[in-house]
Amino acid sequence: MRVGIVGLGRMGAGLAQAAIDHGHDVIGYDPGTKSGKVLADRGLALVTTLGELIDELPSPRIILVYVPHGDPTEQVCEQLRASASTGDVVVDGGNSHWEDSRRRHREFAQEGIRFVDLGTSGGLWGARHGACFMAGGDPDAYQMIEPLLRELAFDERATLYAGAPGSGHFVKLVHNAIEFGMVQSIAEGVELMTRSGFELDLPAVFDNWNHGSVIRSWLVELMGDALRKNPDLSRLATYVEDTGEVKWVVRWALERDIPTPVVSESQQALMGYRDLDAPVAKAVALLRNGFGGHPVHER
Questions:
Q1: In angstroms, rounded to a whole number, what is the distance separating the alpha carbons of residues 86 and 275?
Q2: How far is Cα 29 from Cα 45, in angstroms, rounded to an integer?
Q3: What are the C-alpha distances in Å from 20 to residues 68, 122, 187, 275, 280?
Q4: Could you tell me how far CA 72 lies from the centroid of its own chain?
Q5: What's phi and psi for 45, nearest 5 deg?
Q6: 6-phosphogluconate dehydrogenase C-terminal domain spans which residues (predicted)?
Q7: 62 pairs with which residues across the strands?
Q8: How far apart, in Å, are the Cα atoms of 282 and each of 35, 89, 218?
Q9: Residue 33's pLDDT is what?
């Protein structure tokens, strides 16, 4: 296939390289930075404008968008609505609000353009080596992109057609909310062991847990790796980056009287970690860096 990818940051670049590795022709454009030059040396056809990307793709075009949610996504979608053609498929792979995705589906449909909201999970490793996809939109639009997604996915079960427009991003953001709770509980475990009075080899503990224990998982593996690389937590700041999308889920649940105590408390804790000096905060920052490449600040 010949596909376009708009946004060559952490996720977009990884997926572009994975698509190239699977033999696809990838046209790449990054509206915000000069990224993509390294990929150009590995087979990416790098263009400097969105118009060039449109011109380089055969109809019906498949265009994947991996830019930050909010204004950057809105701007790219507005440009694509004006320049794409009837029958093209525009895929928003970022963490957009599901109501924005519903609106964009209607707006693109007015132009005869098909729109898919594609939740993408797996972090930086997944983008490069096998991601998890959750798609919302019209079935015929999903069928257009499904062969590509299956090649970029972790396995045959890692590609899901969730349903109606908006459902892909809704499922992904609930996933992120669950992730917050899991990250918080793992980080609190680091806090407990750090303050236990025992001289514990924390990376060894997490490695042990990831071999047969009830809580074995990729997050537990990432926590062990992060502690191995950062044995001195005192050098780290406690400020934890927050991209904000889990707040949407919490707010939506509150408006419907749906209790989410673990997720809500995890979000509150994340905001509180900006002013504390506690191992739990540093563990959260390390985990978020491990799966999503979010910054870890030093003192």
A1: 51
A2: 9
A3: 23, 19, 37, 43, 39
A4: 15
A5: -90, 100
A6: 168-295
A7: 89
A8: 29, 41, 18
A9: 62
Which CATH number does the domain 2-163 belong to among 3.40.50.150, 3.60.21.10, 3.40.50.720, 3.40.50.2300?
Answer: 3.40.50.720
Question: Hey, what are 296's tokens?
Answer: 């870890």
- Taking only the tens place, the pLDDT of each residue in 93-106 is 999 999 999 999 99
Q: What does the block give as tokens for 123?
A: 């972090």
The model scores a pTM over 0.70: yes
Please give the full DSSP string across 255-298, using - where no structure is assigned.
HTT---HHHHHHHHHHHHTTS---HHHHHHHHHHHHHH---EEE
Question: Does residue 60 have a cis peptide bond before it, meaning omega lies within 30 degrees of 0?
Answer: yes
Contacts of residue 59, defined as CB under 8 A and 6 or more positions apart, other chains included, come to 85, 87, 88
Residues marked as catalytic: 172, 179
Closest C-alpha to 44, from 65, 61, 25, 58 = 25
H-helix or E-strand spanning residue 173: helix 167-194
CA-CA distance, 143 to 60, in Å (whole number)?
Answer: 13
The CB density around residue 138, as the number of other CB atoms within 10 Å, is 16
Q: Which residue has the tokens 């093209």?
A: 88
In contact, 187 and 287? CB cutoff 8 Å? yes
Band (pLDDT 50/70/90 cuts) for residue 34 is low
Question: 274: Cβ–Cβ under 8 A, 6 or more apart, which residues?
Answer: 238, 239, 240
**What is the topology classification, in CATH, of domain 172-298?**
N-(1-d-carboxylethyl)-l-norvaline Dehydrogenase; domain 2 (1.10.1040)
